[in-house]
Amino acid sequence: MTRALFLDRDGVLDALVHYSSHDEWESPRSAADVRILPGVPDALRRAQAAGWLLFIITNQPSYAKGKVSLEGLHEAHEAVLRGIEVPVTKSYTCYHHPHAILEELKVACECRKPGTLFLRQAHEEFGVDLGQSWFVGDQDSDLRAGRAAGTRVALIESPGSEHKRGTVEPDVRFGSLAEFVAHVIEKRAP
Predict the structure, then answer these.
(1) Alpha carbons 127 and 135: distance in angstroms, whole number
(2) Which of 63, 98, 120, 167 has the most CB atoms around it within 10 Å of its CB?
(3) pLDDT tens column, 73-86
Protein backbone atom coordinates (compact mmCIF):
# COMPACT_ATOMS: atom_id res chain seq x y z
CA MET A 1 0.00 0.00 0.00
CA THR A 2 1.02 3.57 -0.70
CA ARG A 3 1.02 6.57 1.61
CA ALA A 4 -0.47 9.86 0.55
CA LEU A 5 -0.94 13.48 1.46
CA PHE A 6 -4.54 14.58 1.00
CA LEU A 7 -4.43 18.34 0.66
CA ASP A 8 -7.22 20.83 1.03
CA ARG A 9 -6.68 23.47 -1.62
CA ASP A 10 -7.62 26.96 -0.41
CA GLY A 11 -5.77 28.04 2.72
CA VAL A 12 -3.22 25.25 2.28
CA LEU A 13 -1.91 25.53 -1.29
CA ASP A 14 -3.28 28.93 -2.24
CA ALA A 15 -4.46 31.95 -0.29
CA LEU A 16 -8.07 32.55 0.60
CA VAL A 17 -9.50 35.71 -0.97
CA HIS A 18 -11.62 38.30 0.82
CA TYR A 19 -14.60 39.21 -1.35
CA SER A 20 -16.32 42.40 -0.23
CA SER A 21 -19.44 41.44 -2.22
CA HIS A 22 -20.25 38.85 0.46
CA ASP A 23 -17.80 40.06 3.16
CA GLU A 24 -16.26 36.58 3.29
CA TRP A 25 -12.91 34.88 2.91
CA GLU A 26 -13.43 32.31 0.18
CA SER A 27 -11.83 30.25 -2.54
CA PRO A 28 -10.52 32.16 -5.56
CA ARG A 29 -13.31 32.71 -8.09
CA SER A 30 -11.00 33.32 -11.06
CA ALA A 31 -7.49 32.52 -12.21
CA ALA A 32 -6.52 36.15 -11.58
CA ASP A 33 -7.39 35.74 -7.88
CA VAL A 34 -5.13 32.72 -7.31
CA ARG A 35 -2.04 33.32 -5.14
CA ILE A 36 0.03 30.25 -4.34
CA LEU A 37 1.24 30.36 -0.74
CA PRO A 38 4.99 30.77 -0.09
CA GLY A 39 7.00 27.56 -0.10
CA VAL A 40 4.22 25.35 -1.47
CA PRO A 41 5.85 24.17 -4.74
CA ASP A 42 9.10 23.28 -2.98
CA ALA A 43 7.27 21.52 -0.12
CA LEU A 44 5.26 19.44 -2.60
CA ARG A 45 8.42 18.51 -4.55
CA ARG A 46 10.09 17.40 -1.31
CA ALA A 47 7.07 15.33 -0.26
CA GLN A 48 6.90 13.66 -3.67
CA ALA A 49 10.64 12.95 -3.57
CA ALA A 50 10.09 11.23 -0.22
CA GLY A 51 7.59 8.88 -1.87
CA TRP A 52 4.24 10.47 -0.99
CA LEU A 53 1.36 10.55 -3.48
CA LEU A 54 -0.34 13.96 -3.61
CA PHE A 55 -4.09 14.44 -3.82
CA ILE A 56 -6.16 17.61 -3.69
CA ILE A 57 -9.62 17.36 -2.13
CA THR A 58 -11.59 20.59 -2.28
CA ASN A 59 -15.13 21.83 -1.65
CA GLN A 60 -16.04 24.48 -4.24
CA PRO A 61 -19.66 25.58 -3.63
CA SER A 62 -19.45 29.12 -5.07
CA TYR A 63 -21.07 28.08 -8.36
CA ALA A 64 -23.89 26.29 -6.52
CA LYS A 65 -24.44 29.47 -4.49
CA GLY A 66 -24.57 31.66 -7.62
CA LYS A 67 -21.38 33.59 -6.83
CA VAL A 68 -19.33 32.58 -9.88
CA SER A 69 -19.56 30.65 -13.13
CA LEU A 70 -18.47 27.04 -13.32
CA GLU A 71 -15.92 28.13 -15.93
CA GLY A 72 -14.46 30.61 -13.43
CA LEU A 73 -14.04 27.86 -10.86
CA HIS A 74 -12.40 25.58 -13.42
CA GLU A 75 -10.03 28.35 -14.48
CA ALA A 76 -9.11 29.03 -10.84
CA HIS A 77 -8.43 25.34 -10.23
CA GLU A 78 -6.26 25.10 -13.33
CA ALA A 79 -4.33 28.17 -12.12
CA VAL A 80 -3.70 26.44 -8.78
CA LEU A 81 -2.50 23.28 -10.54
CA ARG A 82 -0.12 25.35 -12.68
CA GLY A 83 1.02 27.44 -9.73
CA ILE A 84 1.98 24.55 -7.46
CA GLU A 85 4.40 23.41 -10.21
CA VAL A 86 4.09 19.74 -9.20
CA PRO A 87 1.77 17.19 -10.79
CA VAL A 88 -0.71 15.71 -8.33
CA THR A 89 -1.87 12.13 -8.54
CA LYS A 90 -5.49 13.25 -8.71
CA SER A 91 -7.61 16.23 -7.83
CA TYR A 92 -11.14 15.79 -6.45
CA THR A 93 -13.70 18.61 -6.37
CA CYS A 94 -17.16 18.74 -4.78
CA TYR A 95 -19.49 21.44 -6.12
CA HIS A 96 -22.50 20.55 -3.92
CA HIS A 97 -23.84 22.61 -1.03
CA PRO A 98 -26.90 22.09 1.17
CA HIS A 99 -27.87 25.78 0.70
CA ALA A 100 -27.26 25.93 -3.05
CA ILE A 101 -29.51 28.06 -5.21
CA LEU A 102 -29.05 25.58 -8.07
CA GLU A 103 -31.38 22.70 -7.26
CA GLU A 104 -29.22 20.05 -8.98
CA LEU A 105 -26.36 20.90 -6.59
CA LYS A 106 -28.51 21.29 -3.47
CA VAL A 107 -27.91 17.77 -2.19
CA ALA A 108 -26.49 16.00 0.80
CA CYS A 109 -23.53 14.16 -0.71
CA GLU A 110 -20.67 11.99 0.45
CA CYS A 111 -18.06 13.93 -1.52
CA ARG A 112 -18.40 17.25 0.33
CA LYS A 113 -15.99 17.31 3.26
CA PRO A 114 -16.38 16.12 5.95
CA GLY A 115 -17.61 13.30 3.70
CA THR A 116 -15.02 10.65 2.90
CA LEU A 117 -15.99 9.56 -0.62
CA PHE A 118 -12.90 10.98 -2.32
CA LEU A 119 -10.53 9.50 0.26
CA ARG A 120 -12.17 6.09 -0.19
CA GLN A 121 -11.90 6.45 -3.97
CA ALA A 122 -8.17 7.20 -3.69
CA HIS A 123 -7.77 4.13 -1.48
CA GLU A 124 -9.55 1.95 -4.06
CA GLU A 125 -8.05 3.43 -7.23
CA PHE A 126 -4.46 4.02 -6.10
CA GLY A 127 -4.00 1.57 -3.23
CA VAL A 128 -3.55 4.33 -0.68
CA ASP A 129 -3.02 3.11 2.88
CA LEU A 130 -5.22 5.60 4.71
CA GLY A 131 -3.71 4.68 8.09
CA GLN A 132 -0.26 5.75 6.84
CA SER A 133 -1.54 8.92 5.18
CA TRP A 134 -2.25 12.51 6.24
CA PHE A 135 -5.07 14.92 5.53
CA VAL A 136 -3.77 18.49 5.61
CA GLY A 137 -6.37 21.25 5.87
CA ASP A 138 -7.25 24.59 7.40
CA GLN A 139 -10.79 23.86 8.60
CA ASP A 140 -12.57 21.42 10.89
CA SER A 141 -14.36 19.85 7.90
CA ASP A 142 -10.94 18.80 6.51
CA LEU A 143 -9.89 17.31 9.83
CA ARG A 144 -13.21 15.50 10.25
CA ALA A 145 -12.92 13.99 6.76
CA GLY A 146 -9.41 12.75 7.43
CA ARG A 147 -10.29 11.33 10.84
CA ALA A 148 -13.41 9.59 9.54
CA ALA A 149 -11.36 7.97 6.76
CA GLY A 150 -8.61 6.86 9.15
CA THR A 151 -5.81 9.27 8.24
CA ARG A 152 -3.79 11.41 10.60
CA VAL A 153 -4.74 15.08 10.38
CA ALA A 154 -2.71 18.28 10.22
CA LEU A 155 -4.09 21.78 10.64
CA ILE A 156 -2.64 24.69 8.69
CA GLU A 157 -3.59 27.84 10.60
CA SER A 158 -4.50 29.92 7.60
CA PRO A 159 -5.68 33.52 8.00
CA GLY A 160 -9.30 33.87 6.97
CA SER A 161 -10.52 30.45 8.06
CA GLU A 162 -10.24 30.84 11.83
CA HIS A 163 -14.03 30.87 12.19
CA LYS A 164 -14.23 27.44 10.51
CA ARG A 165 -12.00 25.62 12.96
CA GLY A 166 -11.53 25.01 16.66
CA THR A 167 -13.79 22.05 17.47
CA VAL A 168 -11.48 19.31 16.17
CA GLU A 169 -8.04 18.79 17.69
CA PRO A 170 -5.48 17.95 14.98
CA ASP A 171 -2.55 15.58 15.40
CA VAL A 172 -0.25 18.49 14.53
CA ARG A 173 -0.67 22.15 13.64
CA PHE A 174 1.55 24.47 11.64
CA GLY A 175 1.49 27.88 10.00
CA SER A 176 2.18 26.54 6.51
CA LEU A 177 2.44 23.45 4.36
CA ALA A 178 6.20 24.02 4.13
CA GLU A 179 6.48 23.76 7.94
CA PHE A 180 4.36 20.59 7.95
CA VAL A 181 6.56 18.92 5.32
CA ALA A 182 9.79 19.95 7.09
CA HIS A 183 8.67 18.78 10.54
CA VAL A 184 6.50 15.77 9.79
CA ILE A 185 7.25 14.33 6.36
CA GLU A 186 10.99 14.90 6.22
CA LYS A 187 11.59 14.01 9.87
CA ARG A 188 9.20 11.05 9.53
CA ALA A 189 7.38 11.92 12.73
CA PRO A 190 4.45 9.68 13.62
Answers:
(1) 16
(2) 63
(3) 999 999 999 999 99
